[in-house]
Amino acid sequence: xxxxxxxxxxxxxxxxxxxxxxxxxxxxxxxxxxxxxxxxxxxxxxxxxxxxxxxxxxxxxxxxxxxxxxxxxxxxxxxxxxxxxxxxxxxxxxxxxxxxxxxxxxxxxxxxxxxxxxxxxxxxxxxxxxxxxxxxxxxxxxxxxxxxxxxxxxxxxxxxxxxxxxxxxxxxxxxxxxxxxxxxxxxxxxxxxxxxxxxxxxxxxxxxxxxxxxxxxxxxxxxxxxxxxxxxxxxxxxxxxxxxxxxxxxxxxxx
Length: 255
Hints:
It contains 4 helices and 11 strands, in the order αβββββββαββββαα. Helix 2 packs across helix 4 (about 220-225). It is α+β, with helices and mostly antiparallel strands. The strands form 3 sheets. Strands 5-6-3-2-1-4-7 form a 7-stranded mixed beta sheet, with no helix packed on it. A hairpin with a 6-residue loop joins strand 2 and strand 3 (about 95-100). The protein is globular and about 60 Å long.
């Protein structure tokens, strides 16, 4: 790592190559699908390992589903380990996550895939304290994470529309255009790839494609994450890929 000196590590060494406070983003607008602080807690509201909380018992066993969702601000390699700075949905001071993964990363979800401006989802992660005394997150299982290739603001907006339209598919209500946010009461056009994004017209679909293409291949998983608060809890999921489908989703594999 550039600038590393042997001997005692300074505060700057432990913070990483960039002061995290200079990386901060604005908070995600309130009211989106990924803003429920019980199921999508910010870093400050993550349960502490060993403490009793509504999400986790003192034994460390989850009592409900929850997912930490944060934007990746910067990733770096230090002393044979990967670290990254993240910022969650409330716009609080960035937190740090460290790679302690004991399983093999799923393709495209290893730390080498962490890029600034992408969004990370981690199932059931508690707050811990690093050796330097700062709080953070230990990534202990790659099977519990998913990376969306867009900003947290964009991911939250897309998840909100996907969830709204999946619900409308069940209750027969109007759909919301992914491009212009218009409520459509007549026949809707759908993305030919993910079959989940909906549009009021072909012009709107073409105009929206540059933004939607970043999340199109991951729309299925994004809808599952957005619907996590409704998933029945009997035991913790072993993998984030085990998140149940929203019953109103229009999935390509079903056709």
